[in-house]
Amino acid sequence: MPLDAVARMVAYMEQHPDVGLLAPRVQDVDGRLQPLCSLLPGPLELLLGRCFPLLRRSSGRLARYQLHAGGYSRVMEVPVPPGCCLLMRVETVLRAGMFDERFLQRFDTVDLARRTACIARTVFVPHVTVLRHPARDPAQASARGWRRRSAALWWRCVSAWRYFDKWGWLRDTERDRINARALRQLGQARRQPDGASPAGTDVAG
């Protein structure tokens, strides 16, 4: 993480008091973008990604879900930010709370973003970049590694069940509203000429 990354994120939040949760651009160690922002997930979307990943990718659903329309090159309000690096306003923490320990495997971030959306904006800024290292050793192909992957899948399924049991399964009007708003804003952003910044999206520094 650059030495001034936190300072620039704090400066942005000071300039935009309606922002309660802020996330930077995430890259891997080779400098490739990791598109970790997303819409709020639904059970059918997750099932499609697990059972038919190629269909999900080729149909454009994955790009839509990961908000590729924004290009990750401009400030955008996102339903779910990357969970690896977040800056949260103290007032937002006091009102929305912190991570719920019942959720793992990214659903802790999704749940936090849902609660934050009720009181403040969640924003992605591309002008601050952090590096995300691989979570596991690629050479790990032992039986122990298989057990870890199985345990991770199990806890992801458990967390998904708990999340949808809390917020709603197929019928979730708030999820539909938040996702629709994010997609509308991305549509407006795509019509901006190159080099132009939407109002209120400047980043100090």
Sequence-ordered SSE layout with sheet pairings:
Elements: H1 5-15, E1 19-27, H2 43-51, H3 53-58, H4 61-65, E2 76-77, E3 87-88, H5 90-96, H6 107-117, E4 121-131, H7 143-167, H8 173-190
Parallel strand pairs: 1-4
Antiparallel strand pairs: 1-3, 2-4
- Low-confidence parts, pLDDT < 50 over ≥5 residues? 192-205
- Compressed to H and E, one letter per element, the order equals HEHHHEEHHEHH
Strand order, sheet with most strands:
2-4-1-3
Q: How large is the share of residues in beta strands?
A: 5-15%
What value does the Rg take, in angstroms?
Answer: 17 Å
Class from secondary-structure proportions: alpha+beta
> Please, what is the average pLDDT?
86
Biggest sheet character: 4 strands, mixed
- Helix count from the secondary structure assignment: 8
Helix content: 40-55%
Tally of DSSP β-strands: 4
How would you sum up this structure, described in words?
It is a single chain. The chain is of the alpha+beta class and 205 residues long. It is built from eight helices and four strands, in the order αβαααββααβαα. It has a four-stranded mixed beta sheet with strand order 2-4-1-3, sandwiched between helices. The radius of gyration is 17 Å and the shape is globular. The relative contact order is 0.21.
